[in-house]
Amino acid sequence: MATAMTTDDDSPRARASQIPETLLPAHSDGRNLGLGRLYLRRFLRNRLAVIGVVIFVLLVLFSAFGGLLAPYAFTDADFAALTQPPSGTHWFGTNQGGNDIYASAVHGLRRSLTIAVSVSVLTIVVAAVIGSSAAYFGGRAEKATLAVIHFLLIVPSFLILALVSHRLAGDWRVLIVVLTLFGWMSTARVIWSVSTSLRERDYVTVAEFMGVSPLRIIVRHIIPNLGSLLIVNLTLGVVATVLSETALSFLGFGVQTPDVSLGTMLADGAGTVTSAPWLFAFPAGLVVLLTVSMTFVGDGLRDALDPTSVTGAAGGRR
Question: Whole-angstrom Cα distance, residue 109 to residue 262?
Answer without folding.
Answer: 6
